[in-house]
Amino acid sequence: MEETKNYTAEELRYLKMLARQYPTVQAASTEIVNLQAILNLPKGCEHFISDVHGEYEAFLHILNSCSGVVREKLDDLYANSLPRAELDQLATLIYYPEEKLEQLSRQISDMDEWYRITLHRLVEVCRLVSARYTRSKVRKALPKDYAYIIEELLHTHSEDIDKRDYFENIISTIIRIGQAPGFIQAVSSVIKRMAVDHMHIVGDIFDRGPRADVILDSLVDFHSVDVQWGNHDILWMGAASGSRTLVATVLANSIHYNNLEVVETGYGISLRPLSVFANEVYRDCDVSRFAVKLTGSDAEQYTEKDKLLSARMHKAITVILFKLEGQKLLRHPEYGMDDRLLLDKIDYEARSITIGEHTYALEDTDFPTVDPQDPYALSPEENAVIDQLTTSFQRSEKLQKHVRFLYSKGSLYKIFNGNLLFHGCVPMTADGELMSFTIGGKERRGREFLDYADTAARQAYYHKPGSPERQLGMDFLWFLWAGRNSPIFGRDRMTTFERRLIRDESAWTEPKNAYYTLYNDPEVCQDLLREFGLEGPHCHIINGHVPVKAGKGESPVKGGGKLVVIDGGFCKAYQPTSGIAGYTLIYNSRCYRIIAHQPFAGRDKAIRENWDITSTTEVFERLESRMKIAETDMGFQLQAQIDDLMRLLYAYKAGLVTEDHRRQRE
User: Fold this and answer.
1) What is the Cα–Cα distance from 228 to 406, expressed in whole angstroms?
2) 147-158 burial by CB neighbour count: b if 16+ within 10 A, else e?
């Protein structure tokens, strides 16, 4: 029994506030029992995905299938009783219920009988995936329109003789009144909701693939998710914040890779100001080095006139970008990137440039808006164009909604259930020391620098428009995108200038930070984990950013099992490098397992032919015993609540806090 003297005035004040929520001994005791019961449930399933890069169809399929967790549950129930074709169809129905029902309704003659069988199976699957949760948690996850019926079916077994007629009557009524399609969709959503308790997106939702906005729409609606910002996410966050430099970068990248659907269709941003400007100013210029990358059927869809306009737009926005980047570097000598000021190094007569100790021939020096005497100054026309485009980014309601989501659910790194998650790296020197940065007036390294970077990134969006703090934040977002050894870029330099204007590919190299070599050493990984307060046999670093070359035998598991890289090439552009089509990671109450996915054949084929992504699963670490919620971060929070409630119980019994039975009745 605790002593009265242990309660300070501040603690008693807190306990009296807690008593408003639990106004009697009975109320506090009931909650203690409830919370204690939850602690003994198995840990929920965590799903890790990284580097999806706008590949929305593959992402949504992985999301619907929960990286194979749904199919695993189907196999647990029916592998020995149903043929594979029926299992495939049932899996597809859960992944895409509305679309699959539409197809089957045209093929099956006796839909009522099919509904009856299918509803029985779906309820059984739903019962299996929800068994690890409390009834309260399951109830909160149920769709409002069908919540009561689903709950009744989940807790009423058709095998129970006393309730068999009750169960069958519910199923029959659902079919008779035409509610089977809606009910199937509702139960399918609950199955997917219960299969994964929490999802981690370890960076790079944007760029390369066609529709990052569709991915973000699904994440906004997901029940429990966090995001570790990737360099491409930071890029769009900066553009939405009003950084003209990052707006120019987004557009230069999107035009270069012919990936404007997300800009124009997804976010409703018009590029007309840029196209008019480019056609006028660059009409008579050489734009061959700025030809847009077109692949497959894309190349056949565009006329030569279209291709020429795209190249002019690409060159126009890239020149604007080089100028704006130069202005930023001149404002921030503390970035230590003076060597990336390149426009003033061009020798127009010799058509060359000297970078460091090397002089390179330039393929293009036809820059009508560049004044050699003041190369980083925008022309009045360029200034007007980039201002118009930046305003469009800031006024896109959908983009602003998505960026607010990234700020509210995202961070530069996250510590969750003993794992350290970040997209890129913790910058290190070649001798294994944490790299220091003197930005913001103070030298920082390791976790301290990442904490500073996270705060500065938020400053760009939340400080008053036009304020010096907001400008500093937007400039720092650019540093995170392309700065030397930035924790989410992780390279010495970004060679966009060299790739556009120099043929010699030796100038294109972008040396990686030493982290990407050192992380193969288990001791280095252990030291990094300790830097973030983590230590133990089941603690890991989980990151993405650099595709694992699985086709060449590279393993995603590094550092003696202490680090996992889950960038396996979700984006089609990276699949020739990786040899696969992405990794995902599952961490449940029994083990860690990494899943290697083959390319997705498309949503239409998945629905039409019950086609699923071919995946290979590898369990790389098993837990000694099944992990309970008590051992998780949530468990620690629940235990703290229990401890507080125990103190409240004592306070009631000691007469330090008075029960309020009237509040209990309310």
Assistant:
1) 9
2) bebbeebbebeb
CB 224 within 8 A of CB 155: no
Q: pLDDT tens, 247-270?
A: 999 999 999 999 999 999 999 999
Predicted local confidence at residue 663, as pLDDT: 67
Residues near 453 by beta carbon (within 8 Å), at least 6 away in sequence: 412, 476, 480, 487
CA–CA separation, 118 vs 103, rounded Å?
15
Q: What is the DSSP letter of 68?
A: G
Give the residue from 43, 48, 42, 44 showing the smallest Cα distance to 593. 48
Give CA–CA dist 266/205, Å, rounded. Answer: 14
Q: How far is CA 474 from CA 224, 246, 398, 486, 566, in A?
A: 29, 9, 20, 15, 29
Task: 433-440: list long-range contacts, CB under 8 Å, 24+ apart.
Answer: 434/531, 435/485, 435/513, 438/334, 439/334, 439/335, 439/476, 439/479
pLDDT tens for each residue of 428-437 = 999 999 999 9
Looking at residue 229, what DSSP letter applies? P
19 pLDDT above the threshold of 90: yes
Mean pLDDT of 226-235: 97
